[in-house]
């Protein structure tokens, strides 16, 4: 089902999918069904068995250390050189914290955040209409400086309104979406920023 929707609607959104150290029969099963999949999508699904396979797609210093450690152990057993990497990240699932989703039960807070966001949406729609009209007026041959300035001012006001809409959407998000593993480990911030560097700590 995933592959069906991917190839029909979103083929451009997939760069590559790596299936690493999967069951031995998995790649064989994929070879059997791949003729029915769009060739462009099929070539984006790759199977890797070891570190060398991963390194074809991912820089060694970006591979989590548990994969490096597994490869090093294998090389030690085979009396070959070990592998080292600068990336100290090791995946550990952080369990949900008590109270982390309390805001989802706050009906009044959700209502207020929703109303605030909807007001900004209404304002943005009107600013967009006004900006388009001002743009047409500013592009006529005998447009005045005032008309040109009005378009620029509306453009700036619209940009500022979009920033406020993004902030309002993030505020509403706390009432409608549960916190995830990435919130708990500090990658996703409440202000909408993404901090991958937190994984290196």
UniProtKB/TrEMBL annotation:
Regions annotated as coiled coil: 133-178
Domain CRAL-TRIO: residue ranges: 1-75
Source superkingdom: Eukaryota
UniProt KW Coiled coil keyword: yes
PROSITE patterns linked to this entry: CRAL_TRIO
CDD domains: SEC14
Pfam family, one: CRAL_TRIO
Keyword Membrane: no
UniProt KW keywords: Coiled coil
Protein name: CRAL-TRIO domain-containing protein
Organism annotation: Smittium simulii
Biological classification of the source: Eukaryota, Fungi, Fungi incertae sedis, Zoopagomycota, Kickxellomycotina
